[in-house]
Design brief:
Rossmann fold, alpha/beta
Length: 616
């Protein structure tokens, strides 16, 4: 029988690890609880001043946590306040108002009807699936939030209807591509994200409807001191928030927080809440901390002046007051800065360079198939379908005049509704074209020496991502005297991986031939109605001309000429630098092509996938 010696005191690595994990779990639970408390506080502040705050953009997938928050907001709003839901594919006539077709046909004169925005005057609009809202719907909502009125000039109706409301936009986007339109988010005071909050952390808050009503009545009496306004603006500048609407919304939120607490003036706590809810989620840079006092360079003393003592006496108190206040507000805002801010900014910059958004190709309008996208004047036939309601709507304002013409001519006075050829409306449809990602791979000797194996691995990851998005893929390889098509456009992931695995390396770099081959293939895809995206993997060093002969100078000129021709075609492209270190040749080539430049040493699988999605 053997006995084990007891472990010496203080040497318990297992216990220390368990304690560390428990502490990390407790800290994580505290962070989630704080985020949920902020979300509940945001609902209360929005209920106090829905019109002044513009709206809330809440990013959360459908689930019990989101339902609890929406139910909380509904309970905090007054029962008599309008509360309307905006359907995703709402027509402009229902949203803005226009011609009441049934009443017009019955009365024989144009009769206007109120739209959904006018019905929500003084209340709240709930916009579900806001990341997929139509562009014209987002534009109408933005204009109504700015002007606080709806202008209708259609179907023979001209009317201006006042409407003041707040919007709750439910963002159900599953990835960074699906976002609420920027035109709407810029007009919302609060941006929330509840995706990581578990159900057990969504505890009921302490707010009640009676406190909201008292805060509403007290809100007009709340004053904002000048030093609080300076702290808000200084925090916005430190976080890189350039929009003036954000600072104005922060002021409104601070006033609502003071009114909810029963205060007559905005205090530091209210400004901190506003900075955490409004400015922190909009940050575009991380504030740099001040250097330590021992590293600060001593400033040269100013020249002696007669009134130097008076200036120091008058400026020192303000500096002692303003600096601590702004630091406190900035610390409160930093708690709400996203953890992956730098990655989000990089991907956002790539998306801003692409001419169309979305992962399923560009939009194409037609009259044969797809999703309905309004109507246009035209005659049915050749696949075009007659829009009966819109045809009657176009004919309704002219019935009295046409009836008078028939009475003068003495023909057909018993006709109820006269529809003429100019009234015909046919349905327009909008559909997404198919995206084809074309991989142009440099398989020359220099690329094989450097990073061809890693480039193959990166391409395999991108191929799998294209397969998930149901995109087509094609592959072009260039080495030796020219380029060849290894894989025509296909959805078969197995064929694509087999072609990539069998790609040998070696020979010269006919970069111009590779770009020309990718351009020809992309042009063919575009002619068939698809959306091509070219991903060029190369080190940018050309040494084979278009004729297939050596010569680095002439080969470089040919490659740049092919790149300019590619740019003229206005195609989307991504140039991945395969060099061990980023080279100026590949970056210049990307600039001449009008493409996004991404060095492979700085691009992991996730970054490459995000870059291709951003370009596409």
């Amino acid at each position: 029988m053997s006995t084990s010696a007891p472990a010496p005191a203080g040497a318990m690595p297992g216990q220390d690890m368990a304690d560390a994990e428990a502490a990390a779990a407790a800290e994580r639970q505290a962070q989630l609880a704080a985020r949920w408390d902020d979300a509940c506080l945001a609902a209360a502040l929005f209920a106090v001043d829905p019109v002044g705050t513009g709206g809330i953009s809440m990013r959360a997938l459908p689930g019990p946590v989101r339902d609890i928050w929406v139910d909380l907001l509904r309970e905090l709003l007054p029962a008599e306040q309008p509360y309307r839901r905006i359907p995703l594919h709402i027509a402009d006539g229902r949203l803005l108002g226009g011609l009441d077709l049934a009443a017009t046909l019955h009365a024989g004169r144009p009769v206007a009807e109120r739209g959904l925005l006018a019905e929500a005057d003084g209340g709240v609009l709930l916009l579900a699936m806001a990341e997929r809202v139509a562009r014209n719907t987002a534009a109408h909502l933005s204009a109504a939030l700015d002007n606080q009125e709806v202008v209708v000039e259609r179907d023979g109706i001209t009317a201006r209807t006042p409407t003041r409301f707040g919007v709750v936009a439910l963002d159900e986007g599953a990835n960074d591509e699906e976002q609420v339109p920027t035109t709407l988010k810029d007009r919302f005071a609060i941006l929330l994200d509840l995706n990581d909050i578990p159900y057990n952390a969504a505890l009921p808050p302490d707010q009640d409807a009676d406190g909201i009503l008292r805060a509403r009545r007290h809100l007009p009496q709340v004053a904002v001191p000048d030093d609080m306004l300076e702290a808000i603006c200084g925090t916005a500048l430190a976080l890189g928030v350039d929009s003036l609407r954000a600072s104005l919304f922060a002021q409104r939120i601070a006033c609502a927080a003071a009114a909810l607490a029963g205060r007559d003036a905005v205090e530091m706590e209210d400004v901190g809440t506003a900075a955490r809810l409004v400015l922190g989620p909009r940050a575009t840079r991380i504030p740099m901390p001040d250097p330590p006092e021992d590293q600060q360079q001593p400033e040269e003393p100013p020249p002696p002046e007669e009134n130097q003592d008076d200036d120091q006496d008058s400026q020192s108190p303000e500096q002692e007051i303003d600096k601590p206040l702004e630091d406190v507000v900035l610390e409160a805002a930093q708690a709400a800065i996203p953890d992956n801010l730098l990655a989000m900014l990089k991907m956002g910059a790539m998306r801003s360079r692409s001419r169309t958004s979305g992962k399923s190709g560009a939009s194409q309008s037609g009259s044969l198939r797809g999703r309905p996208a309004g109507t246009r004047r035209g005659e049915p036939g050749a696949g075009a379908r007659l829009a009966v309601i819109d045809t009657l709507r176009a004919a309704a304002p002219w019935q009295r005049l046409r009836r008078h013409e028939r009475e003068q001519q003495g023909t057909g006075s018993d006709v109820l509704v006269e529809v003429r050829q100019d009234d015909f409306r046919v349905t327009r449809y909008k559909q997404r074209s198919e995206t084809t990602t074309i991989f142009a791979v440099d398989a020359s000797g220099s690329a094989a020496l450097h990073r061809l194996a890693e480039a193959k691995g990166a391409v395999e990851l991108l191929l799998a991502d294209c397969y998930v998005r149901r995109d087509r893929v094609a592959m072009v390889a260039f080495r030796g005297p020219g380029a060849e098509l290894l894989l025509p456009p296909t959805r078969s992931l197995v064929r694509a991986k087999r072609s990539l695995a069998g790609l040998p390396g070696g020979g010269g770099t006919p970069l111009a031939a590779g770009i020309d081959a990718a351009l020809d293939l992309a042009d063919g895809v575009q002619r068939r109605g698809g959306t091509p995206v070219v991903v060029l993997l190369t080190d940018g060093r050309a040494n084979v001309t278009r004729e297939g002969i050596g010569g680095r100078a002439q080969a470089t000129e040919d490659a740049l000429a092919s790149a300019r021709a590619f740019r003229t075609a206005e195609l989307k492209a991504l140039v991945v630098d395969m060099s061990p270190r980023p080279r100026a040749d590949a970056e210049k080539l990307a600039h001449e092509m009008g493409a996004v430049y991404l060095p492979l040493p700085h691009a992991d699988a996730k970054a490459l996938s995000g870059a291709v999605q951003a370009v596409a």
